[in-house]
């Protein structure tokens, strides 16, 4: 079983992480608006979507947004407010390695600030490919191993191991993103070429790339207004994204696969299946039983618990 960054065990409200990060948050919104500009459709999946920080970018373009997250507590806590904002949204607790959805369901998906917690990216991104339909879009954000500060540090310390393509596990110190300070958590940074190979090997066609948070430096954030930083951020997103110098990178790709003829699903229940064996579910009220492996899943305080 792959290791999981289980936020429910950290006793920490991830939304508080964003209290002092308006610049980073708005920089990510700027990128997503650029990447989603010409897209629309029905089902859209936000993987590791947590408290719904990014929902506004896709819920105005896709009629049926779905947030999947391993943290049942976070979804339960934010259910009412997210439903109020977007009545069609569905929240579901599941493991990104074992998604409880039928093949070829989604017209689009994104994963932001989650890949650094994923021990086996290939297994996870292949599972996302399974649930995306032909021509579906997939936006993958990742923490960039080759961001400019890391490259300068590598040159100054003559430590060139940074340049090998393998994912890099950050030391525990200072990397608690989304978790309680001091907790031990998976936190990988990725090489841009390693990510490109990962996506293309699975069958995604890479279409666009944007760097993000080019000005993520405490000194700049202290001295300059967020508005000023975002003005330059927007310019750098257009002009410097080829360079791989930013700490975070977004890749948009298109799914290319032959799909069997599937019926257009009408409601949420009709897109679900057993995350373990992919068998059909018999769903009654707050209980779903797999017709094949007989595993049982429960809806707990409005949220289906399909975690494995
Ligand atoms: C740093 S937060 C990012 C949340 C959100 N994407 C954002 O950018 O605001 C990481 C989220 O990924 C979720 N997560 C980590 N591993 C996961 C897995 N294997 N399956 C589903 N969710 C996972 C965590 O529960 C957490 O909510
Ligand atoms: Zn089953």
What are the defining features of this structure?
single chain, 308 residues, alpha/beta, Rossmann fold, 11-stranded mixed sheet, two-stranded antiparallel sheet, 13 strands, globular, binds S-adenosylmethionine, binds zinc ion
Descriptive account of the structure:
- The protein has 308 residues and is of the alpha/beta class.
- It has one domain: 3-Layer(aba) Sandwich (Rossmann fold), CATH 3.40.50.150.
- Helices cover 28% and strands 25% of the residues.
- The chain has 8 helices and 13 strands.
- Strands 8-9-5-4-1-2-3-13-12-11-10 form an 11-stranded mixed beta sheet, with helices on both faces. Strands 6-7 form a two-stranded antiparallel sheet.
- The longest helix is centred in the N-terminal third of the chain and has 15 residues, at 22-36.
- The structure holds S-adenosylmethionine and zinc ion.
- Residues 274, 276-277, 279, 290, 292-293, 295 line the site of zinc ion (ZN).
The biggest sheet amounts to: 11 strands, mixed
Strand content: 15-25%
Might you state the CATH topology name? Rossmann fold
CATH architecture: 3-Layer(aba) Sandwich
- Residue windows where pLDDT falls under 50 for at least 5 positions: none
Give average pLDDT, whole number: 92
The radius of gyration is 19 Å
Which secondary-structure class do the elements indicate? alpha/beta
What CATH first level would be assigned? Alpha Beta
Number of strands: 13
Question: Which molecules are bound besides the chains?
Answer: S-adenosylmethionine, zinc ion
The coarse silhouette is: globular
Distance between the termini: 9 Å
The strand order across the widest sheet is 8-9-5-4-1-2-3-13-12-11-10
Our count of domains comes out at: 1
- Helical segment tally? 8
**CATH superfamily membership:** Vaccinia Virus protein VP39
Order of helices and strands: HEHEHEEHEHEEHEHHEEEEE
Helical residue percent? Answer: 25-40%
């Amino acid at each position: 079983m792959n290791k999981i960054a289980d936020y429910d065990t950290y006793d920490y409200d991830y939304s508080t992480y964003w209290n002092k990060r308006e610049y980073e948050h708005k920089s990510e919104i700027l990128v997503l608006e650029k990447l989603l500009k010409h897209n629309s459709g029905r089902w859209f999946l936000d993987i590791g979507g947590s408290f719904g920080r990014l929902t506004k970018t896709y819920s105005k373009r896709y009629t049926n947004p779905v947030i999947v997250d391993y943290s049942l507590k976070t979804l339960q806590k934010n259910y009412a407010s997210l439903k109020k904002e977007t009545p069609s949204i569905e929240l579901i607790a599941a493991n990104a390695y074992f998604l409880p959805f039928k093949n070829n369901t989604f017209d689009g998906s994104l994963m932001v600030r989650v890949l650094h917690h994923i021990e086996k990216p290939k297994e996870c991104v292949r599972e996302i490919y399974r649930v995306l339909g032909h021509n579906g879009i997939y936006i993958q954000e990742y923490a960039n191993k080759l961001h400019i500060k890391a490259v300068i540090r590598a040159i100054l310390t003559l430590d060139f191991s940074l340049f090998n393509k393998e994912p890099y596990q950050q030391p525990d110190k200072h990397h608690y993103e989304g978790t309680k300070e001091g907790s031990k958590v998976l936190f990988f940074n990725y090489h841009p070429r390693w990510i490109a190979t990962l996506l293309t090997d699975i069958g995604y066609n890479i279409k666009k790339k944007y760097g993000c948070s080019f000005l993520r430096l405490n000194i700049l954030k202290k001295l300059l207004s967020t508005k000023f930083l975002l003005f330059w951020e927007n310019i750098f997103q257009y002009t410097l994204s080829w360079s791989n110098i930013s700490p975070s990178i977004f890749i948009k790709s298109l799914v290319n696969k032959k799909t069997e003829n599937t019926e257009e699903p009408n409601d949420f229940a009709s897109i679900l299946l057993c995350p373990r064996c992919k068998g059909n579910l018999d769903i009654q009220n707050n209980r779903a039983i797999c017709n094949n492996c007989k595993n049982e899943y429960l809806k707990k305080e409005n949220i289906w618990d399909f975690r494995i």
